[in-house]
Amino acid sequence: MSERDNILDELTKLKAQAQLKALDTQLNDQQPQGSFGGNASRLFFQGLSFGTADEIEAFARSLFGEKSYAENRDEIRANIKKFKEDNPVLATGLEIGGSLPTAAVGGLGLARAGIQGVGKIAGIEGATYGFGSGEGGLGERLKESAVGGTISAATGKLADKVLPQVTEQAKRLLAEGIPLTPGQRVGGVVRDVEQKATSLPVAGDFIQKAEQDVLKSFNRTAMNKALDPIKVKVPQNVDGQEAFAFASNEIDDAYSEIIPKLIIKNATPLRNKIDEITDSLNVPPDLKTIFRKQIESDVLFRMKGNTLSKQNLKDAESALGQKGMDFLKSTDAFQRQLGQAYFNVQTALRKTLSDQNANAPKLQQINKAFRQLLPVQEAVNASIARGGSFTPGQLLRGIKKTDKSKGKRKTAKGQMPMQDFAQESQDVLARTVPDSGTAGRGLGAVLLDRLVQNPVGTSTALGLSVPTVGLAYGSPLGRSVATSLLTAPRNLAVTSAPFLGQEVDAPFLDIPSLEQPSLNLAPSLLR
User: Fold this and answer.
1) Is residue 498 classed exposed, middle or buried when 0-12, 13-18 and 19+ CB atoms within 10 A define those classes?
2) What pLDDT is attached to residue 369?
3) How many CA atoms lie within 13 A of 385 on its CB side?
4) Distance between CA atoms of 152 and 140, rounded to whole angstroms?
5) Contact, 285 vs 332, CB < 8 A?
6) pLDDT of residue 7
7) Is the dihedral of CA 207, 208, 211, 212 positive or negative?
8) pLDDT-based confidence at residue 515 (cuts at 50, 70, 90)
């Protein structure tokens, strides 16, 4: 072949390639692409319908148009595919956004139906999404469903396990009205960081103030639980010893109202208990003598024969409470022991009264409130140095101390009143990173060194951190917003798990194709 023929041959090939390219462009231009907004809406509704919106639209269009269901379906899918290729990020965001409400509502429905566990719910939704978005016959759809369900379940379970979320214990305390800090709500690493951040200058003060507010609210809640049988609540503006004094006075007032209507017909059990309490006193003999004489004056001399009733009963009960309170205020350890002894006699009187008036419902309610307040009283006494603001740990110890069952068996079984509440509060509120002062001093030295080396940058960072922490910890609303930001990754991952599952291709699971006839969501006669 001559050189001229070679040149002509190459020109012919180039011309043919150009014609094929032009034809391909023309064919692509002729494909029905649809409007940008229309295709964007399709992606959103694909997510909202868990992958079935294309077939629903094709079915609806086949009822009123000239094209068949299959033609409409293929055209819509081609439009969606092209839109995804041209706008991958937007398309993904639209479909995820559409799938979120369906996944959330579906998850609630599955939970109500008795299906528990984030992994199970995400797996079921992912399998549904995979089947709905699958193309081809039944075998292909089942394969997509299996892959989608497996990946969705794994994604949801992993996100639920490793990403921050509000704990079940924290949810129950929040329902009680205790304004937990963000770290107390989600626990784990976030709580550790929060505790360490209390050593920060200024910003750490906001966190400490929030923790103090939480502790005060916990105290009021504990007292309100104790007072619940008599339907009384501690005012929001009081805390510590003042709050306990209010609670105790409410119970005393309730007793004062009902006691004159009752009677102790047989005072022998009360006399025996008084002897037992007196003998157990570990105080100097002169104080023990004083105690015995005052008990005789306040209680025994008010008896008529072996009975105690009406005004005499009321005066005896009131005198015991007043003497107990007066002695407990003393700085002398022996006198404080006498104060506790007076309260023990008062308790014995109330128990005797209850035993002999078992059919008085109101008395039983007051007695229950009184018994439930005893562990709180122990916790308040143990926290006198902090103004009576007690911790969950101190309440737990108070519960154990007031357990009169053999070997503290009720406490061991977790059956004491308010024990569950106290234990959950201990788990959520307790500090796991104690600061003896060393950490704070160390952090202060580091900050001082940074200020010397980079005064502008360090000052700016501190300046930004203070208002941020202040907003996050300064109010219950700020704590809720901060918590929402902390838990957003987990909530988004769990809710979008069905979409993520159907995006994974079938080769990730070795599931053989099933030889089944083609399956579509519309009736076969409309294809």
Assistant:
1) buried
2) 93
3) 3
4) 18
5) no
6) 62
7) negative
8) very low
Structure tokens at 515: 């030889």
DSSP letters for 40-105: HHHHHHHHHTTS-HHHHHHHHHHHHSSS-HHHHHHHHHHHHHHHHHH-HHHHHHHHHHHHHHHHHH
Give the bridge partners for 308, in sequence order.
Answer: 264
Amino acid at 264: I
Structure tokens at 133: 């978005």
Q: Which of 386, 431, 429 is nearest to 197 (CA)?
A: 431
Average pLDDT along the chain:
79
Residue 119 near residue 133, CB atoms below 8 Å: no
Task: Count Cβ atoms below 10 Å from residue 436 Cβ, excluding itself.
Answer: 7
Residues 103 and 227: their CA atoms lie apart, in Å, by 43
| pLDDT tens profile 333-371 | 888 899 889 989 998 998 898 888 877 788 889 989 999
Angle (CA) 166 171 177, round 5°: 130
* DSSP for 206-227, written as a single string: HHHHHHHHHHHHHHHHHHHHHH
Percent of the chain as helix, strand, coil, to the nearest 5 = 75, 0, 20
Token readout for 136 is 């081809």
Cβ–Cβ under 8 Å, residues 167 and 186? yes
